[in-house]
Amino acid sequence: MNVTFFSSKPYDLTFFQQTNADFGFQLRFLKVPLDETTAELVTGSPVVCLFVNDQANAAVIRTLARQGVRLIVLRCAGFNNVDLDAARQAGIQVMRVPAYSPHSVAEHTLALILALNRKTHRAYNRVKEGNFALEGLMGFDLFGQTVGLLGLGKIGKVTARILGGFGCQLLAYDVVRDEEAEQLGIEYVSLPELLNRSDILTLHCPLTPETRHIINKDTLARMKKGVMLINTGRGALIDTQAVIESLKNGQVGYLGLDVYEEESHLFFEDLSNTIIQDDTFMRLLTFPNVLITGHQAFFTRNALQGIARTTCRNIQAFVEGKASGNEV
Ligand SMILES: NC(=O)c1ccc[n+]([C@@H]2O[C@H](COP(=O)([O-])OP(=O)(O)OC[C@H]3O[C@@H](n4cnc5c(N)ncnc54)[C@H](O)[C@@H]3O)[C@@H](O)[C@H]2O)c1
């Protein structure tokens, strides 16, 4: 079975080639992202493997179908970048990796919280320059802080468990109730209550039409003054212009992002020798209380091994005409 990868990076080759030794598919790695200009590059390959910023909109899906594609395997959990209706109409199956290592993203969420709070990124630079002054580095104890989890699925629950270890009080808002929440000491609240009571608010819901810009001018105004807002979910959960206004007036005291709504033009590439044209992103970088990473929360070797294995199993199920359980 021929499989064409889009947006492939050296680490994709490493992990997929290792895992594929047990499966024997023919893997073709393209560096370009999938969009309307690159979809025709798929030839003789019934399977395409996509990542978070590949764009499988209706027009792209139609081209893929014309090129003989029958299966899209996403090497990620989110599937907001695929037009599922168009795929169904074109007879293309879509599968994903619903769970690989929720620990990878949850632990990165903590890395952002801790770095923003204790300003380790700034301290690192100061100490390197022989500046041992502490002014501007003061943090707060996480113990006793109220943390709100917007979305209490796999990643939200692991994040909650870690934060429980710090002695945080945990609140969650989710459209579905999980019976494990009580054992984890998590109190379910409404969205307005979550916004109103959280000292730290962390986003772990998927990007859907309902959650797009769930953090906006109105919801930001309901938060505690000086709130710490963390997003390791999807960029478009936050209205970036609105959050910039809230940073300027102090409503948001700390912002930690691993995702950004216009990230597809920026992330995963070395742009250090270019002039970045995204003024909104560049404005975010000017705030001392904003910490951004380039969609790396998933990026642990454990997660990459898990992603490669589940993706190969998904393809194997398709080859055998069986359900993988990971269809979307
Ligand atoms: N930064 C990264 O590297 C990275 C990696 C993996 C996943 N993610 C993102 O994290 C998200 C969560 O992943 P997960 O594995 O925990 O998914 P999950 O499906 O296990 O959990 C998502 C939770 O969100 C809830 N939810 C859905 N709609 C909601 C709404 N309108 N309001 C509140 N809650 C809602 C669901 O009920 C579910 O409990 C993914 O959808 C993906 O976008 C990011």
Automatic annotation (TrEMBL):
Occurrences of domain D-isomer specific 2-hydroxyacid dehydrogenase catalytic (ranges): 5-328
PROSITE patterns in alphabetical order: D_2_HYDROXYACID_DH_2, D_2_HYDROXYACID_DH_3
Q: Which Pfam families match?
A: 2-Hacid_dh, 2-Hacid_dh_C
**Record-annotated D-isomer specific 2-hydroxyacid dehydrogenase NAD-binding domain positions:** 110-297
Q: Which domain of life is it from?
A: Bacteria
Keyword annotations for this protein?
NAD, Oxidoreductase
| Molecular function via GO | D-lactate dehydrogenase (NAD+) activity; NAD binding
Task: Name the family the entry cites.
Answer: Belongs to the D-isomer specific 2-hydroxyacid dehydrogenase family.
Query: What's the name of the protein?
Result: 2-hydroxyacid dehydrogenase
